[in-house]
Amino acid sequence: MSNEHYKHGIEPIEVIRSYGWFPDFAAGNILKYVARYRYKNGVDDLRKARQYLDWLIEHEESDA
Question: Does residue 40 sit within a domain?
Answer without folding.
Answer: yes
